[in-house]
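EI: anyone free to look at a 445-residue chain?
SC: sure, send it
EI:
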Amino acid sequence: MTASHEADLVRAALAWARSDETPAASPVVAAAPRPRAPRSVRSAGHACPEYGHGGLALGRILTLSLRARPPGDRLRPAPSAGALSPVTAYLLIGRDGPLPPGGYAYDPRTHRLRAHRPAPTGPPAGVSVVLAVNPRRTAAHYGHRAWPLLLLDVGHAAAALCLAARATGAEGRVCFDADSALLESAVGGGLATGELPLAAVLLTPADAPAPYGQPLSGWAQDPAPPACCPGRGSMTAGSVLCALGRAASAHPGWRQPPWPGAAPAERLLLGRRSAAPPIPGTPPAERLHEVLASASAVGRAVLSWCVAVGGAEPGLLALPPGSPGDGEPSDPGTPSTGLHRLAAGDARPTLAVWAAGQGWLAGSGAVLLGYGCPADAAPRDVRAAHLDAGAAVGTAQVVAAGLGLRSRPVGSWQLADLGAATGGPHGRDWIVHGLALGTRKGEET
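SC: here you go
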């Protein structure tokens, strides 16, 4: 398939995912087989050292980010659409790591690692975590709406790993623009049937030198196998993600998602839960400012961010241009610069319709929104927008928890052309991801 055909495929699939057609109309739902567990689940593997060696508490990082809780359950610290958890982590442990160098698959239910490939000669330092998804798990539930949710799930998992690294005194950097063929080659044949690698996280001790160069290339085998396209039909979730996986940068890079102030407390990561609806109570403006600032900083310039509120002065609020939180999170104790009003009126009832008819959203205290990703966006930009949105909302949820707020990610959006609804051009500013916010019980306003 040529690049032009792949761009057409992504545009058509994006329009379909944003339409109001229900998943029941999708052939993917009826055709998808029962998902198989990754090979990591079917093998005992190695015990994961909780507090690790070599300056990297790998086991603790995985506990705070991906480990099932309670043990054996499907729930994870990182949010996932429908609690389906389709993301599998493949670890490439280099020299001076917590285990012998080599490739390992992580089983979050048993907190064990299965070795599946030897390390190359002179493996890169640090631990590279390749994040892959099994599209069929989510497609069987969400049909043609699945592939954007899968990208969001990967972004959430990447953010969870970086937050857990910081909480344990290490550092985490994300790579969202590596070709899937490079990621698959680095894993070295350990992927379960039908899995697609879409992102990577580099974990290093805090005092390690900056990762110049490309750690993934040090693991890649020659020749690199082509990225697979699981599933049948031209617009299955697997086919679309495969096209997006090839929409990579010529020089993939690593970046460290910012975090406001001191490292997040482990209790926030262990205790993170998506609140059950309803989620009432409008948070104070200064707390909304902090949540907005964190999402805006992590999401870079790929998306714009605002928050919908009701109350006496309903509207869409955003960070003022040039404010301390516009592009990077503010430090603790920094006075809020206030919020800029983008539009007047209560958008929450409309958001409840756009969010796959989740009526409870109309009564939520506030809704954080990441928007952009035009209808004609290039595949590379579509991929970046959704991965960044997942990471941004994942980070914002932890910030919200630290501020004493309840929250719930909202990933499925239909007909959600926010720009057109607020008087702008059609097809330019679509909602990509959201986070419902509310105060604790007894604090409702």
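EI: The longest strand covers residues 196-205.
SC: 👍
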